[in-house]
Structures are given as structure tokens and as C-alpha cells.
Structure prediction request, 119 residues.
Amino acid sequence: MAKPQGRNHSGVTVAQAVRDVLIASLNKGQFPVALLTLVILSLIWKMPSEDVSTLVFMMFAKLEYWGYPLSVLAFGGWFFHARRQRRLIADELERISHERDKAQEKTLGSRVKSSEGKP
Prediction:
């Protein structure tokens, strides 16, 4: 049977997509942000179109002044987050290597020599 011409429908409705996004935000702890975004979008949806265009132009005018400070904050947040992540990962690798060494020593005894020059 031939497919009908026109748009391809995936079978996912807008309500299902919104539901999936909200469930994912609940699982990741981002539900308050998602809820606030939905409230703001619903308020904008109900505004008259003239007010929406005024709001958009006003927001872009304000972003002109906030661009540099926001980029400095984003860079600073990235820097400190990356430094913290490197420290956490290094600590975890150290912990895992100690656990591995203890397990090998317990299992194999002194049959395996250390690669670090330790007896």
C-alpha cells in the first residue's frame, strides 16, 4: 500500500511531547524551571500581538546591556564547574585504584609485583 502524499506524521502529539519534557525535568530536578517557563509562555501566548512585539523589542534592548556581564558569569561558571569536575574525577580514580589494589592483593597475594616499584 502506498503512503499518502504530504506531511509525515510521527504519531506524537504536542501534549505527549510536553508530558515527556515535564517527566524528564522531574527526573533531573529541573521541574521548577520548566514550570516557570510554561507559565511565562502561557502568559505570552495570551497577550495581544502588539504587546508581544513590544515585549520582544524591549527584551532585546535590555540584552544589549547585559550581554557582557552574562558572558562573564557563564565563563566563570564553566571555569569553576570544570575545575570541580576534574577534582572529583581525580579523587574517584584514586579511590578506584586503591580499591583495585586491595582486591588484587587479597586475591593474588604477593604473586604480582607492583608497577610502581613497591614490593
